Amino acid sequence: MSNWQELEHKYFMSTVERIPVTLVRGQGARVWDENGREYLDFVGGWAVNSLGHCHPVVAEAVAKQAQTLIQTSNQFYTIPQIRLAELLVQNSCLDKVFFCNSGAEANEGAVKLARRYGKHYLGGAYEVITAMGSFHGRTLAMVAASGQSKFQQPYLPLPVGFINVEYNDIEAIKVATTKETCSVMLEPVQGEGGVNLPDDNYLAAVRAWCDQTGILLILDEIQTGMGRMGTLFAYEQYGIEPDIMTLAKGLASGVPIGAILAKDRASVFTPGEHGSTFGGNPLACAAGYATLKFIIDNDIAGNAKKVGEYLVTKLEGLRQKFQFVTDVRGHGLLVAMEFSSDIAQSVVMDCLDRGLLVNRLKPNALRFIPPLIISKDEVDEALGILDKALSNIVS
Ligand SMILES: Cc1ncc(COP(=O)(O)O)c(C=O)c1O
Hints:
Layout: H1 4-11, E1 23-27, E2 30-33, E3 38-41, H2 44-47, H3 56-66, H4 79-90, E4 96-100, H5 103-121, E5 127-131, H6 140-145, H7 149-152, E6 162-165, H8 170-176, E7 181-186, H9 202-213, E8 216-220, E9 244-247, E10 258-262, H10 282-297, H11 300-321, E11 325-331, E12 334-339, H12 344-353, E13 356-357, E14 359-362, E15 365-368, H13 376-394
Parallel strand pairs: 3-13, 5-6, 5-7, 7-8, 8-9
Antiparallel strand pairs: 1-2, 2-3, 4-10, 9-10, 11-12, 12-15, 14-15
Helix pairs in contact: 3-10, 4-10, 11-13, 12-13
The structure holds pyridoxal-5'-phosphate.
Pyridoxal-5'-phosphate binds next to helix 5.
């Protein structure tokens, strides 16, 4: 057998601290490594495998589409793209869709759309206000949008046009708004930045401010969308509607895809102003349609809500048991556990040894982002392992 990890060091750019496991197969909420060892997966491809690994409806849709039509240029109409766009519009508050290939690309496109809107209706306004602690992707502009200096410092100078303000501070948004502002862009719940929840009324106050000033509200639902928070989209829980929303991650349950959705009035691109070679190709859209249809028809968001509440209750139990667990927070199946010191990596490695994959969110925090089809029994199994790993920290 090849030593895959040695080969990786030889051939691959070192951009991620990998966990020393080579995964070769997945099914449902489980994956297997090259030695046949099984793991319960609470990472879910970083909140991507909404229906778990290789769900039959997704695998069948991809296989069928791969034998029919994989890619055309976007100069031609293709049916999977139109079917997915229709389903997204029918099940959201938005009217128009553009497909791309990733989250960062969706957010880039959303910012371009807001700038275009600024040119048409706001006297050339182009600035976008974003929040500290946010994460919007890895392109240069999205690094500028993401309010985290660790992502920004290595790449200075950054593209202009992004103002990072304190999260959960409506006054900061008001102060930062000028005649150059075309939009505010926020994650409803900050995922990568720490599973940071919005204060009561924060999002409603931002919406009201955007209405008052005429600027657009972009919601980045790349991590929170597709049922993860217990409703199909997170905005539904905050009594607001965005003008523009971005999706990616869970939209096709693992097949790369991104989407920009917009209200009619914000949908101001004209032919030639934006585009993508692969975006919306039939293969990805067939996977997206199969995923979204299954999520809707089987109330997978309801499962995320129910099992997410169960997960939080069980994690709270561990917080009571272990003094060094200082916080449990989250919504649906986007949940974090925080510690009083930087033990997250050793907990991750101990869980790994015991057959559980969990995500180190920060040096002192874990994130639980399993497939949305996860069961209470699987939560019990995972938390049994986590309990043992945490006990090990104590002794
Ligand atoms: C909220 C949010 N926006 C954007 C992105 C970037 O998505 P991608 O890695 O597909 O470019 C992520 C990825 O973690 C994310 O969580």
